[in-house]
Amino acid sequence: MRDYLKQRFGANATGLWLTERVWQPELAADLAAAGVAYALVDDRHFLVSGFRHDELHEPHHTESDGQRVGLLAIDERLRYLIPFRPPEETASYLRELRSQGHGLAVLADDGEKFGGWPGTKDWVYGSGWLDSFLKTMDRLITAGEIKLSTAGAAFREVPSGGLAYLGTASYREMEKWALPPAAQRDLTTLEEELGPKHLAASASFVRGGHWHHFLVKYPESNRMHKTMLALSTLSRRRGDPPEARRAIGRAQCNDAYWHGVFGGLYLPHLRTAIWRQLAIAERVLRQGEPLLCEEIDLDYDGFNELWVHSAQFSAVISPQRGGAIELLTRFSDLTNFADVLTRRRESYHEIPKGPQHHDGGKEAGTQSIHDIERASRLTSLPPVDAEPRAILVDRLLGDDVTHAQYSNGTYSPIRSWAVVPMTAAVKISADTAVITLRAKDLEKRLTFDATGCLAVAYSWNTDDSPKNALFAPELSLARDVALSAPAATETWRYPITTVARSERGFEETVQGVSLTPRWPVGIGGAVLELGT
Q1: Is residue 507 situated within a structural domain?
Q2: Domain boundaries, position 472
Q3: I want to staple 407 with a disulfide (CB 3.0 to 4.6 A). Which of 96, 207, 210, 494 is the partner?
Q4: Where among 142, 170, 198 does a domain terminate?
Q5: CA distance 149 to 128
Q6: Is residue 191 part of a domain?
Q7: Whole-prediction pTM value?
Q8: What distance lies between CA 429 and its chain's CA centroid?
């Protein structure tokens, strides 16, 4: 990137606007080692570490392991003024800072605020905000009230504020989004009880969680992340082939790993892109490899998974979670067929409907994305899944369960093996890998060939099951796959749809397809095959 910027703009890039403004103390050493002289972070990072607002209008410095990097605090008030408020409000704020003797105000922000977010195109361009803003800034410069500067020049021209050690932080909304739904609601309640005045006075210490918690909140995100780490380790052991290393780097693009108001993890095309890069890397790293099975705690949850792989495919089975297949990637088309998002309750699904306030027009300004977020309301609650989605989540259903109840998650199974630990026995030959999983009343034998095609054989105890029950393994798939299920009474199918909040309000997104063959429990066994 530095080489490109030099070629394109003729400038040496020495500073960095941190991705999603995430900071943890050890980053200083990593940034310095990468040749970064300074980083831009939110002013909130300083505030939660004990600094006062009036200490933030000057450059600071920090270090990690003796490696030094400069820090600039992005002014939150400027972020909310530009471009959402009339330009004169920005001018008044800058004059206020100058009258108080401050020498620096820092702005770094997203380009999509200037036409990409809902309502901003009309406001910024149609209403003349941009033209008015540029004229306002020009008047301030001509009058000698402000001087525009690059971040690098600010370090040379503005006296240092000294040493700063910042705690782990991101922007306020990111920390809130990382919380589990119940904790998000608790934090919202606290903010409402404090009220605007008291919240403003204590906002630095009223905060959410660590952005890493997205990996706990969303196992699908964690699965991508830990697969990336495992392949990164494998790549280093195998000499870091350039194609694999490049693909692993691309798979670290952060957008698909978290979810706030911007979709992120809920957007299938983002996850698909990550899994595609991971498949490219693994295909390179496993060239010429025979069929193998590793027992490894791939997702770092304290329970081992079985990682079956060859030069043509990769699959992860969780004995702890009923022998479900949580990853199934075939290198021929670079698709992870298990890349499906579980339907879950989000905090914004339960925000009660209330009065909505909207200030419109040029004089009042336009709504920020967070105003839109707070204004979004649902008229009904979307379906949620009682259990995590994967390939081969096995259940026993009553024959009175309808397709509508099943697809909406408004049923109770007679029995579910979704979270039942199973024992596993592995047998590998030149052409097949056979994984035999056993739990009380159920045996499940998975047979993979070297290309990743899968045959499954079930046998179960019929003694304790209602005679009219149906054995029903659910396959949640990223796309349609050929499924053969001989002797099944029928195979239920429905699209897996989630409802998530985005910058445009609430959106339905198809995450994949559910296929569920059903067999009468009395036959005691069943087979199915998953092709291409």
Answers
A1: yes
A2: 291-344+386-530
A3: 494
A4: 170
A5: 25
A6: no
A7: 0.91
A8: 38
